[in-house]
Amino acid sequence: MVAVIRSKMTSKTSLQQLLAAAALCYWVNAFSASRGAPTTHHRPPQTRLFQGTVSGRNIAASFPIISPEELEADMLININNNSASKTISSRQEEHAITATTKEATTEELVPSTWSQALHHFFLKDIGPPLVVLTISGFILTRCQLISTTPFSITELVIFASSILIWWIQEYFFHRVLLHSPFDWIGKSIHGAHHDKEYFHISIDPPALLLGWLFAAHFIIKAMLPQYHLCLTATIGYSLAGLVYEWSHYIVHTKVKPRIIPSISPSYQQLSILERRIIQPIMKGYAKMRDNHIRHHLIDDRYWYAFSVTEMDDLFGTNPNVKDVKREIRKSRDGFQ
């Protein structure tokens, strides 16, 4: 009986902590918004080879003449679609960076090193630190309940399932809603994201990050009344969301993945940590970046996957790049 009362008191206290964190987020966001009107920047010209798909128009409805700059940006893509190591050469990337920033007048400084990227994401922007703080609060609350509700296999399955749900939701939200045939505010915001230069700062505002996180928490709580299971599911789901937010941010910066071939003499000099953990992460980052560049610069009807690029293979949105380019050029020639 005492344990039940203690559990209920802890749950009540945890809910109060969550509400307090939400209130803090609202206050910080309101303060940030009140600091002044946003600066108006020049919107650069489109850099995608195919532009008609964002607004749901037919493939031949609007196709611009491809400029040399656009062709240079298109060179970012390694057209060997079946290669497991889809990397971007330094020379090609320099061409693309020059092409996509030549006419831009934006004031934002896009990170080009890992230290700059980490500093901007976790120290300069307020949203991600608030998400980290909130997730830490969830983890601490769950740890406080271990004495009454110890970890179990069921909880581990729920944790893994919540991450899987994020991956599936991430793909279909992007494909079905953000690129929907009907107009709504989410599609408009995503269209503005596509209209920007590829290399730019892409971090969601704090209100959206925290609002989504707490909305998910209360939905999960309605589905899982046992509070310790609700916390575990929320932690898994929000961690997957934080990884996505970081990954989407980093692929839009100028930070290059550092991949050392296993046959290189330098590879043998790497530590076990670098070989077993850092290098696989870099290869995954390169694949993710390559996939997202294709989505932005070749054809945004394909390559919707992000955290798990294999989702495109599973749902048929990873066509051969040469075939897509051939289709686009046929449509352009027919339209002209």
Describe what this molecule looks like in 3D.
By secondary structure, the protein is an all-alpha fold. The protein has 13 helices and no strands. It is globular and about 70 Å long. Residues 1-16, 23-92 and 99-107 have low confidence and may be disordered.
Order of helices and strands: HHHHHHHHHHHHH
The structure class reads mainly alpha
pLDDT under 50 segments (min length 5)?
Answer: 1-16, 23-92, 99-107
Largest sheet: none
Please describe the structure with a list of short key phrases separated by commas or semicolons.
mainly alpha; 62% helix; disordered N terminus; globular; 336 residues; single chain
Quick description:
This protein is mostly helical and 336 residues long. Helix content is 62%, strand content 0%.
What's the helix and strand layout?
Layout: H1 2-33, H2 68-74, H3 90-101, H4 114-124, H5 127-144, H6 153-178, H7 185-195, H8 206-223, H9 227-251, H10 265-268, H11 272-297, H12 310-314, H13 321-335
Helix pairs in contact: 1-5, 1-8, 2-3, 5-8, 5-9, 6-9, 8-9
